[in-house]
Amino acid sequence: MTKNTPHYAGHRGRLRERLLKDGTDLADYEVLELLLGYALLRRDTKPLAKELLAQFGSIRGVLQARPEQILHIPGAGAGINALFSTIREVLARYGEAPTRTHEMLCTPEAVAAMAMPRLSGCPHEEVWIATVDSQNRQLSWERLARGGPDTAPCQPREILEQVFRYKATGFILVHNHPGGRANPSPQDLQITQRLQELSQSVGVRFLDHIIIGDGVCYSLCKGGVI
Questions:
Q1: Which of 40, 126, 167, 183 minimizes the number of CB atoms within 10 Å of its CB?
Q2: What predicted TM-score, i.e. pTM, was given to this entire model?
Q3: Residue 122: beta bridge partners?
């Protein structure tokens, strides 16, 4: 290391070596410190990593923080937001991989595993639908509506049109409650009951309605509504 080499350069290299040897040996702030280094190449990222964890409580809390919240942290900017957005998108697509291989999608847990990375911590409400064939192999996973902090209007007709589009025999509806619990609202129960009636009338299986909260989910099928 030369006289002009920043002090954190060697430290970052040692962190990488420890990560490759055994990632569980690193503290949360050290993992975040390494991650931030990919956006802030010429800065000591330890202070920022510790500040982010102090503000948001955990690595998950940091990654789920809203862009405007990140911008209020001294030393964080658009580059950090872009990095975190990329990571969230990678995690979401990882969870959505069954769509590409037509894997079985027949339990609330499987749906939640696919939906949680994209919708948990999302600042606005979204409605998604997964369609399946007669053997519960996934055919599609698409967003139907994107709304505000407490609503994303979506009509039963639009939902069934998506089912018919893929010639599916069944579907799972998913939506999120931004910043809140996953318990169904009266409106959630109403649209679920209406969808169940319409689905039965056209011979389509309405398998479940999953509500995603912050780190939690609720299955209306398991709850006895469907």
A1: 167
A2: 0.67
A3: none
Q: Which long-range contacts (CB under 8 A, 24 or more apart) does 51-55 make?
A: 51/75, 52/76, 53/28, 53/29
Asked if the structure places residue 159 within a domain, the reply is yes
In a shared domain, residues 53 and 110: no
Q: Indicate the residue among 92, 124, 153 that finishes a domain.
A: 92
DSSP state of 222: T
Domain's final residue, options 92, 125, 146: 92
Q: Which domain holds residue 88?
A: 7-92
Cβ atoms 149, 123 nearer than 8 A = yes
pLDDT tens profile 6-46: 666 688 889 999 988 888 889 999 999 999 999 998 889 99
Structurally, the chain folds into a number of domains equal to 2
